[in-house]
Amino acid sequence: MPPTDPAEDASKPSADAGGVPTEKGKAPEAPLPRGEAPGIRFEKVVKRFGHNVVLRELDFSVAPGERVTLIGPSGSGKTTILRLLMTLEKLDDGLIWIGDETLWHMERGGKRVPAGQKHLHEMRKQVGMVFQQFNLFPNMNVLRNLTEGPVRVLGLSKDEAVERARGLLDLVGLADKENAHPTQLSGGQQQRVAIARALAMQPRVLLLDEVTSALDPELVVGVQDLLRDIARQSDLTLLCVTHEMTFAKDISDRVLMFDQGQIVEEGPPDRIFGEPSEQRTRDFLQAVLAT
Ligand SMILES: Nc1ncnc2c1ncn2[C@@H]1O[C@H](COP(=O)(O)OP(=O)(O)OP(=O)(O)O)[C@@H](O)[C@H]1O
């Protein structure tokens, strides 16, 4: 049985999330990533797995700093959208824009050609993702889980990475767990570490893939509250996939109802959940509420 911790209920980021004064009087780097966030645009994106066409010339966009949630039936391709943005899957056709650059393609001699590793790497640095199954490095302690990426990928010094990691562990209510290994933590604590790890890379786009689906019910609200507060306090562009409609309502500026590879309808959460105009949305919401 994983240990329980008061931090499970301490869902709010600490009051000094914006920066605690150091001994030298210098405010450390604010834990939440700051700076201009790019928008996202899918332009006629096609993704197939064999004969299974998962995305069919999909068009949609997320404005800079906007918080958008994708809802829709299981197997409709929501996770695939996030995985394409994370470069974990390759697209078959179309373009994916992050800001004013295409993710999977680059300009060469006035032509658009498939992206090389360097371009993918640079684009990928802007995007962070929190997964359903946490995906922490099991053989590293919590602090190292947070410092590994910033040191290896971003080139931070160890001291800088540790300072950033500690600020983020404080933010997610796990300041006292930096030496613990993931297996010594509850699911809720592991997901908090995963959130902090994603933020440690200072992404400008944050992807959330059913982040509370693997948690025991009593841990869900704490993690959702934490994410809602992070979303409100940061200026990240957020794309979230969830089956939790209350969370979707809470965290989003806009909700996209997605089915069979296409957007069925979209709008502010109050309208999509209160007065959906499409029958497929009504059926989906009814089915979700019945479970
Ligand atoms: N690596 C893969 N190889 C083959 N098929 C895949 C792969 N990944 C996803 N698929 C298929 O693509 C479709 C879309 O899957 P995806 O996980 O994106 O759906 P989803 O809407 O996120 O579903 P859920 O809500 O259940 O997570 C499904 O039919 C799935 O079986």
Helix and strand arrangement:
Layout: E1 40-49, E2 52-62, E3 67-71, H1 78-85, E4 93-98, E5 101-102, E6 105-108, E7 111-114, H2 117-124, E8 127-130, H3 142-152, H4 158-171, H5 187-200, E9 205-209, H6 217-233, E10 237-241, H7 245-251, E11 254-259, E12 262-267, H8 269-274, H9 279-290
Parallel strand pairs: 3-10, 3-11, 8-9, 9-10
Antiparallel strand pairs: 1-2, 1-4, 4-5, 6-7, 11-12
Helix pairs in contact: 3-4, 3-5, 4-5, 5-6
Distance between the first and last residues' Cα: 28 Å
The value of Rg in angstroms is: 19 Å
Overall number of strands: 12
Bound molecules: adenosine-5'-triphosphate
Structure description:
Residues 1-36 are annotated as: Disordered. Belongs to the ABC transporter superfamily. There is one protein chain. With 291 residues, the protein is of the alpha/beta class. The chain has nine helices and twelve strands. The protein has helices at 78-85, 117-124, 142-152, 158-171, 187-200, 217-233, 245-251, 269-274, 279-290; strands at 40-49, 52-62, 67-71, 93-98, 101-102, 105-108, 111-114, 127-130, 205-209, 237-241, 254-259, 262-267. The strands form three sheets. A six-stranded mixed beta sheet has the order 8-9-10-3-11-12, sandwiched between helices. A hairpin with a 2-residue loop joins strand 6 and strand 7. The longest helix has 17 residues, at 217-233. It is globular, with a radius of gyration of 19 Å. Adenosine-5'-triphosphate binds next to strand 2 and helix 1.
